[in-house]
Amino acid sequence: MALMKPRNLLVIFGDQLSMDMASLKAADPAQDHVLMVEVAAEAETVNHHKQKLVFFFAAMRHFRDELRAAGWSVDYVTLDAPENTGTFEGEIARAVERLSPDRLVFTAPSEWRVERMVGTLENALDIPVKTLEDTRFLCGRNEFAAWAEGRRGLRMEYFYREMRRKTGLLMNDDKPEGGRWNFDAENRKPAGTDLFMPRPPRIKPDQTTADVITMVGETFDTHCGKLKGFGYAVTRADAEKCLDYFISHALPLFGDYQDAMLTGEPYLYHSVLSPYINVGLLDPLDVCRRAEEAYKKGRAPLNAVEGFIRQIIGWREYVRGIYWLKMPDYVDANHLEAKRPLPDFYWTAETEMACLKAAIGQTMELAYAHHIQRLMITGNFALLAGINPKEVHEWYLGVYVDALEWVELPNTLGMSQFADGGLLGSKPYAASANYINKMSDYCSGCRFRADRKVGEDACPFNALYWHFLDRNRDRIGSNARLRNTYSTWDRMHADTRADYLAAAERFLASL
Q1: In what order do the strands lie in the sheet with 73-77?
Q2: What's residue 196's pLDDT?
Q3: In this structure, are residues 104 and 92 in contact, taking their beta carbons and an 8 Å threshold?
Q4: DSSP class of residue 7?
Q5: Which of 4, 136, 148, 511 is least enclosed, having the fewest CB within 10 Å?
């Protein structure tokens, strides 16, 4: 049935699945209509994991149904609709012709590329366009730019303190709860295999999701990852169940073991809530208040709750600010001039290095790995091996269910690959096998030995670590946080340094 002519046509993107979107809150269901579209161009920007595609399309279709149940008229174009042009521009143009709205209304897109597209529509379609700020974020883009202006360094810790003051989370008047802003020093315990490991709820797909699984399997059969076992929440109600489970079962030990890694334990005490927050199924401030409430009621310790809240109101908001401050040039940053292609095993997990095999294997199975696996296993290897950071970025953007460019790009190029020259991180996150052995059990089942520095059975991370520092000395040698490390390198016997470099060169040639 044809939709009636609307006053405003509200275009809702796939990461804007919240009834609190600014465009919806400013509109009237009796006069305004919603447009939602599934387009091939977005699904193919990079090699997106099959489960990531299912998550987005299924969540969109369920949000469509939620909108309609709330009285909204929704014009929804499925990916397999015969007339689908495959692009945002094409589908918005078709909707304007079909519905003749007086105006297009958007909540500001989260990605630079999509915002640029929206900026072309008024002239291209000869229709007024209004864009509203995305109020799901605590810090507006202009507010972040004002905070950053004139600062010598844009350190997240100082920004985070401003967000604590702004929200009042874990604050006693103007003082931080517990007398400290940051309890990260208490959050680095290696996990033992005797710990009870909670399992985040896996949601059984309903018919709507099952239809999407079939469509993705047929349409994107060459994309990476497995479809079998999809269990992510794709409705607000199920996302709330996942939040309740985390607060009750995992948050109390999240702080202690957030940096730990165990074979066969992909989740440990991590929340696995970022996909739901990033697309709008959960509200980030509400999530933080729920965690704070658990602390106040004595159900979770301060180090766990502070660490969790810091990830959301601190790091998440901070990387978004950096993204909009530095785009569009940021995506091409390559301070270390790394040029080696991404190894094939990043797609297959076919490697003898147990840590990489575990992290990449679970990524291909679940479209998920927690932040230390991303930073200190796959990211650390790419950094040490000199992999082209843009290829690393496109891999992370594709394989993880929670990856949207605004949050993934600064994390990858800045924090993980040091490609921005230290804008985000005060030093490169480079580590030898010792760190991995300390924080995981991967090394015990590996054919390489973490305690061997060179030789056939030596862990490649050891030689690669010193090779990385040596070849990048002109770029990072003056970093104050690396002064002692370079002093150690300089004190080594010349033959020892030569052995490290030769071992690394042999391994890199084998890639």
Answers
A1: 73-77, 33-37, 8-11, 103-107, 129-132
A2: 64
A3: yes
A4: S
A5: 4
Residue where the block lists tokens 């990043």? 346
The neighbour count for residue 66, using CB atoms within 10 Å, is 17
Indicate the angle between helix axes 483-491 and 460-471, nearest 10 degrees: 110
Kindly report, residue by residue over 432-444, the tens digit of the pLDDT.
Answer: 999 999 999 999 9
CA nearest to 227, candidates 214, 236, 246: 214
Nearest Cα to Cα of residue 399 among 35, 134, 46, 115: 46
- Closest Cα partner for 379 from 423, 413, 403? 413
- What single string gives the DSSP state of each residue in 373-409? HIIIIIIHHHHHHTB-HHHHHHHHHHH-TT--HHHHH
Beta bridge partners of 485: none
119 contacts 125 by C-beta, under 8 angstroms: no
H or E, element range at 67:
helix 50-69
CA atoms within 13 A on the CB side of 45: 20
Tell me, what amino acid is at 245? Answer: Y
Does the predicted TM-score (pTM) go above 0.70?
Answer: yes
Q: Select from 170, 145, 429 the least CA-distant residue to 312.
A: 170
Candidates 51, 120, 47; CA nearest to 87 is: 120
DSSP string computed for 315-373: IIHHHHHHHHHHTTGGGG--TT---BPPPTHHHH---S-HHHHHHHHHHHHHS---HHH
CB atoms within 10 A of CB 216: 26
* Residues whose CB falls within 8 Å of the CB of residue 441, separated by 6 or more in sequence, listed in order: 193, 261, 262, 263
How far apart (Å, rounded) are the C-alpha atoms in residues 201 and 241?
8
CB 115 within 8 A of CB 20: no
Measured distance CA(45)–CA(399) in Å, rounded: 12
What the block records as the tokens of 51 is 């489960």
What is the DSSP secondary-structure string of 189-257?
A: PPPPTTS-------PPP-HHHHHHHHHHHHHSTTSSS--TT-----SHHHHHHHHHHIIIIIHHHHHHH
Strands 33-37 and 8-11: parallel
Using the 8-state DSSP alphabet, how is residue 412 labeled? I
Mean pLDDT score of the chain: 95
Give exposure, 234-262, as e/b (b: 16+ Cβ within 10 Å): bbbebbbebbebbbebbbbbbbbbbbbbb
- Specify the pLDDT at position 464: 98
Q: How far apart are CA 212 and CA 6, in angstroms?
A: 29
> How do residues 118-167 score in pLDDT, each as one tens digit?
999 999 999 999 999 999 999 999 999 999 999 888 889 999 999 999 99
| Cβ atoms of 401 and 229 closer than 8 Å | no
Q: How far apart (Å, rounded) are the C-alpha atoms in residues 101 and 10?
A: 10
DSSP-assigned letters across all residues of 363-379: HHHHS---HHHIIIIII
Q: Which two tokens stand for residue 367?
A: 């479209």
Among residues 197, 15, 5, the alpha carbon closest in space to that of 97 is found at 5
